[in-house]
From TrEMBL:
It comes from Liquorilactobacillus aquaticus DSM 21051. PANTHER family: SULFOQUINOVOSYL TRANSFERASE SQD2. The lineage of its organism: Bacteria, Bacillati, Bacillota, Bacilli, Lactobacillales. GO terms for molecular function: glycosyltransferase activity. It comes from the Bacteria. The keyword Transferase applies. It holds the Pfam family Glycos_transf_1. Keywords: Transferase. Residues 192-343 form the Glycosyl transferase family domain. This is Glycosyl transferase, group 1 family protein.
C-alpha cells in the first residue's frame, strides 16, 4: 500500500438518502476505503441524511440549515475545525454553488487543499436571487478552491468559468458504475415480473429517481397516459421516493391510470427490477450525469432522455434524445414510446443491446473502475 493511500480525506456534501451524489459516494468510496484511504464525512443534508456513510468512515451530521442558519454555520465551523486536525484535504461534492458557505469556512479552518466536485447542471432553473448567489459562489470558489472536478461538461459549465476550466487542476471524472452488475438478466426479468404480477408480454416503461421537481414526473405521467391509450398492455413502474411522492400519486389517480402505474418506493434491488424495463423514460429538467441512466443503458434498455442533459448521456446506441420544450413534446414522447415498444418484445435483442452498450460505455470511461482510479489519482497528487 502506498503511503498516500493511508491518509485521511475529509468529504463534505449534502448527502441525502438515495440521491445521486450519495449513490456516487457510496459506490466509489467503499472501493477507495478498501484500497486504504480513510474518510471522514461531513453531512450538510437538510433532510433524510444518509447516515449509512458511517459504514465507510467517520461520520458527522451538521445541524440542518432549515433549523436555523446560525446553528448550521456554528455546527459546520465546529465540524470543519475538528476534521482539520486529521487532514489538510477536503473534497466537497456539490450540486450548486449558491451555498458557498462551506467553501469559505473550509478555507478559514485552514484546509490547504479544497477539492470542488460539480454534480449537477441547473442552468435556467434558478430565480434571479439564487442565480446571483451561485454566480458569486463561482467567483469565490475560483480563487479559494485548489481543485475543480465535474461529472460532465455541462456540470463543469454550470460550476466553473472558462478560466477555471483551463487550470491544470480541472478535470472531468465521469460517473462510472459496475457495468456488468447491470447487464440484462433474462431470468431476473421473469422472476421480478412474476413478483410484481406483470405478464411477460406487457410493455414496461420504467423510471428511477427521487420524486422531486428535477425529475419532471408530471411530464412522464402525461406521456405514459397517451402511450397507454394506444398500447393498453403496458405499465409504468416508478422507483424512488421524495417530497412529491403523494402529489404524483394524486396525479396518476386523477388521470385514471392508477391500475397501470406501480409505485415501488425505495428498494434495494434496483438492478434486478431494471431487467423488467422495456423503456426507460427520463425527462429530467436538469442533470449532471445520471447514474440511473447509465445503469439502464448497461441493461440494454431503450432510453428516452431529455435533450438538456449532458452530451455524455447519449453515448450508447439505445439512448434517444428527446425535447421537453412544451406540451407538444408530451405527445412526441408517447409516440416514441410506441415506436420503440415494437422492438422490445424480442428479449434476445435486449441482451444483444446490453452487451453492445456495455462495450461502448466501458470504452468511454463509464466503468466504476475508471472512476475509482481517477479519484485515486486526484488524492495521491
Amino acid at each position: 500500500m502506498k503511503n498516500s493511500k493511508s491518509k485521511t480525506i475529509i468529504v463534505l456534501g449534502s448527502f441525502n438518502t438515495n440521491n445521486g451524489i450519495t449513490t456516487f459516494v457510496k459506490n466509489n468510496y467503499t472501493s477507495l476505503a478498501e484500497e486504504g484511504f480513510k474518510f471522514e464525512f461531513i453531512n450538510i443534508a437538510n433532510s433524510a441524511p444518509a447516515t449509512e456513510l458511517a459504514e465507510i468512515g467517520k461520520y458527522i451530521q451538521v445541524v440542518q440549515f432549515k433549523l436555523g442558519i446560525l446553528k448550521h454555520i456554528t455546527g459546520l465551523k465546529s465540524a470543519l475545525k475538528q476534521a482539520r486536525q486529521h487532514s489538510t484535504t477536503i473534497h466537497m461534492h456539490l450540486d450548486s454553488l449558491h451555498n458557498f458557505i462551506p467553501v469559505v469556512l473550509a478555507k478559514a479552518a485552514g484546509f490547504k487543499r479544497i477539492i470542488i466536485h460539480a454534480h449537477s447542471d441547473q442552468r435556467g432553473q434558478y430565480s434571479f436571487t439564487k442565480n446571483a448567489a451561485h454566480g458569486f459562489g463561482m467567483w469565490i470558489t475560483g480563487f479559494l478552491a485548489t481543485d475543480y472536478l465535474a461529472c460532465s461538461q455541462n456540470a463543469a459549465d454550470f460550476f466553473y468559468s472558462r478560466g477555471t476550466q483551463k487550470k491544470p487542476t480541472f478535470k472531468i471524472i465521469i460517473n462510472g458504475v459496475e457495468l456488468d452488475h447491470f447487464r440484462y438478466d433474462a431470468k431476473k426479468n421473469v422472476q421480478i415480473r412474476k413478483k410484481l404480477e406483470i405478464p411477460l408480454n406487457t410493455v414496461v416503461v420504467g423510471h428511477c429517481g427521487r420524486f422531486a421537481r428535477q425529475k419532471n414526473h408530471p411530464f412522464l405521467i402525461k406521456s405514459f397516459k397517451i402511450f397507454h391509450e394506444k398500447m393498453p398492455n403496458s405499465v409504468l413502474v416508478l422507483v424512488g421516493n421524495g417530497e412529491h411522492f403523494e402529489k404524483i400519486k394524486c396525479l396518476v389517480k386523477n388521470l385514471k391510470i392508477q391500475d397501470s402505474v406501480r409505485f415501488l418506493g425505495y428498494i434495494d434491488n434496483v438492478a434486478e427490477v431494471q431487467n423488467t424495463f422495456d423503456i426507460f423514460a427520463f425527462p429530467s429538467l436538469y442533470e449532471g450525469l445520471s447514474l440511473s441512466l447509465i445503469e439502464n443503458l448497461a441493461n440494454g434498455t431503450e432510453c428516452l432522455i431529455s435533450d438538456n442533459q449532458s452530451p455524455e448521456s447519449f453515448q450508447a446506441p439505445t439512448a434517444h434524445k428527446m425535447t421537453i420544450a412544451n406540451e407538444t413534446s408530451i405527445n412526441q414522447w408517447a409516440e416514441k414510446m410506441l415506436f420503440v415498444s415494437k422492438t422490445t418484445a424480442n428479449k434476445n435483442l435486449k441482451e444483444i443491446n446490453s452487451q453492445g452498450n456495455i462495450d461502448v460505455l466501458r470504452t468511454k470511461g463509464f466503468d466504476k473502475r475508471a472512476t475509482v482510479a481517477s479519484l485515486e489519482k486526484v488524492y495521491e497528487n
